[in-house]
Amino acid sequence: MSDGGVFQFPVGDVICIAIDDGGYDYQPEAFAFGPHEQAFVAATGQRGAENSPIHTPYTCLVVRTPQHLVLIDAGAGWDPGNGKLPARLRAAGIDLAAVDVVILTHGHSDHIGAATGQDGQPTFPNARYVMSTAEWTFWNAEHPDLNHTPREFAGLLTWFAHQKLRPIEPQLDLVDGETEVVPGVTVLPVPGHTPGQLAVLVRSHGEQLLVIADAFTHPLHVPHPEWTANVDLDPAQTVRTRQALLERASSANALVQAFHFPFPGLGRVRRAPEGWTWAPEATHGGPA
Ligand SMILES: [Zn+2]
């Protein structure tokens, strides 16, 4: 059921709850930079309207295993238009103090905003915060190399990351490589968009959910994995990571969840004669 920005669905005996944190309007170059921008605009049906903003959701995910309560990404953390995660967790009956693991897939502002509150304290006081060593190191540099990211936006991203990440250091659990963070929940390196981005694999009773974070930021990246954006810090590595994820999701017939796809971001990857297609999943879970 999708109700009040919350959608619950099962993966084996794990209960997953997608939470709509809000969203933001982006320009096309945030999805397909340089030579691919025109093709992207045409494929979205916005031919002739190159500067039309594209509304992009932010979807966080709660994973309730038999023993643990895991949150994947913390949303943008501020109003207006987004930052709805903490209130929607409470409305869904989830005590912020009961979350025992927070996985931050990467350090972009729309994924770490509610890692800490306005008081500068960790929003989830009893959680360990899982991040990759590469990602933590990158964002805690004084001047991370944000490549093609527009200059004023890059400065804001860096400032925000410092504000949000430094206070969680006492609760930090850095990982390297593929790591099971709690039984049935494994993080996987998916570099490219950022140097240390993590995907998350949830496995239970033969079912799989692959949470792909920002390895893909628009459904058109599935048939066009070569379309990278100005915010994909290493475009060539982004394409290699996408190809590997498409192979993995398709061969396992995994349910896939993407942070920026239309809420709740669920679907499956199918092989097509000339590449890959995205098949959105019918949203038929139970009430949250
Ligand atoms: Zn991102």
From TrEMBL:
Write down the CDD domains for this protein, in alphabetical order. Answer: OPHC2-like_MBL-fold (cd07720)
Q: What is the name of the protein in this document?
A: Hydrolase
Q: Which residues form the Metallo-beta-lactamase domain?
A: 57-260
The GO molecular function terms of this record are: hydrolase activity
- For whether the record's keyword set contains tRNA-binding, the answer is no
Origin species, per record, is Deinococcus aetherius
Domain of life, source organism: Bacteria
Q: Which InterPro entries match?
A: MBL_superfamily_lactonases (IPR051013), Metallo-B-lactamas (IPR001279), RibonucZ/Hydroxyglut_hydro (IPR036866)
The cross-references to SMART domains, in alphabetical order and at most eight, read: Lactamase_B
Q: Which PANTHER family match?
A: QUORUM-QUENCHING LACTONASE YTNP-RELATED, QUORUM-QUENCHING LACTONASE YTNP-RELATED-RELATED
The upper taxonomy is: Bacteria, Thermotogati, Deinococcota, Deinococci, Deinococcales
Q: Which Pfam families match?
A: Lactamase_B
Which residues are the signal sequence here?
none
| Family per record | Belongs to the metallo-beta-lactamase superfamily.
For this UniProt record, give its keywords in alphabetical order, as a comma-separated list.
Hydrolase, Metal-binding, Plasmid, Zinc
